[in-house]
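User:
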Amino acid sequence: MDHSRRFSVVDPTSSSRVRRDVRCHALISSLTQHFLFKGFALMIIIINTLVIALEEEYSNPGLCRVAEWVFLIFYVLEFCMKVYVEPRGFWRSGFNIFSSALLLLSLVAVFAEGATSFFSLQNFRPFRALRVLKIISFSPSLQALVLMLAKAMKRAVYVMCLVFFIMFIFAVAGVLYFGEQATGDVEHWGDLGSGLLTILGLITLDSWVDLLRKVDGLGVAYSRLFPIFFILIGHFIFFNMFVGLVIMEVEVSKLKKWSDGNIKTDENFPQIIQQLRMSLSDSDHFVTKDKSSSLTFLQIYLTTLRHQDTTLEKMQQIYDEMLEVLSELLELEQEEQREGKEQE
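Assistant: Predicted structure:
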């Protein structure tokens, strides 16, 4: 298909292009943005997850294969529709790229069924469980949460490195202190690998009491101080520090996003008002919660204006009457003055 026929140049000096398939593009765009389509896609993802979970319990190869093809056809159609609507903008989102990678792995697993090499179905079957993560691409809240956690992990890497160094130091010390072949605990401290696994269990407080009792049975002096000291340092200090740092970074990201949104709103406020002014007409109706825009308030306000007009009219009449009385008094005073002069 010649994709160049789908576009026509409007202005030779401009790089903007207009699609010729405007109706089809608008139809598919409205369909992909509709809440029913998104709800149906979420339902398909959830059903697919349930089918994958039940497939291991109730083995039915024929039914599972048909269901797998149905799900894949829907995922491929969804992918094609979104790429058709936004050929370039689709790939600017990391979540869309992740969803496309999951779809590619699913297609490779299906078309490589029966192979005996690295591309066998058994090697790609576990990746099907990752399809549940496609829900993130349909939920802006989950996307924001994932982005905030990713930003938090950047600073938490330094804490993780420090925790790993401390674990390595304690693992080496544990191997040297409890790893004797004859009198030591070879199961937990026989080599560096088992020592690191034991230290990892201590930092997560996994069966640390049993480990402490087994260390007590070795007869090593001050054997309890080693695991208790590491638990105090590794779990109560550094592990909680890691959790607190992640929570702080999430809160900072929320505040930064909120402040950026307010600044952007303030900068675009005149433009928003101008667009709103151009889009309004005298016949538009508004639904508002403001009391000054309610019908009761408008009736009272108009009645008050009428009373005010009536009061002003009466005051004007009184003012005119006062002017007439004052003018008559002035004329009488002038006549008395003239009569007094004539008598003199």
